[in-house]
Amino acid sequence: MNWFKVMTLTAALAANTAFAEVAVIVHPSNAATLDQAEITRLFTGRGATFNNGNKATPLNLSESAAARADFDSKVLGKSSSQMKAYWSKLVFTGKGTPPKELNSDADMKAAVAADANAIGYIDAAAVDATVKVVAKF
Question: Which tens digit of pLDDT belongs to each residue from 35-86?
């Protein structure tokens, strides 16, 4: 493979990664409307209910999941390490508990599909009819 082909392939892969979308998902029966501020409120522990008054159970992907870093930066406006520090401080002071972590998009879809109060996120390419997309970033 020559240098030009290597650079072209590298650029194509980088472009593909840069355009990956994160889909915020809820149970199909959830009628709440959510914007970025509302999603941030739920995933930072500053709120425990959807804007329609129903209980919200936010779920995170594991730190090793690519969608986790995308979600933290695109939606929460922080790096994953900043979010880890944020939650460490809240846990240490007794003021919060971070969302439960799941290992994969498939685990996240299954958990959200099984719990009407759940809210999570996955790579937009992994969305199917078992969940409802409320936002994409």
Answer: 999 999 999 999 999 988 999 999 999 999 999 999 999 999 999 999 999 9
Structure tokens at 95: 């003021």
The Cα–Cα gap between 111 and 102 comes to: 9
Is 26 a domain residue? yes
Q: Which token pair is 84?
A: 């880890």
Q: Answer yes or no: is 130 within a domain.
A: yes
The answer to whether residue 40 sits within a structural domain is: yes
Residue range(s) defining the domain that contains residue 94:
21-136
End-to-end CA distance of the chain: 36
Beta bridge partners of 123: 22
Model confidence, pTM: 0.85
Structural domains in the chain (count): 1
Report the candidate in 133, 132, 110, 136 with the shortest Cα–Cα distance to residue 28: 132
Pairing of β 132-136 and β 57-61: unpaired
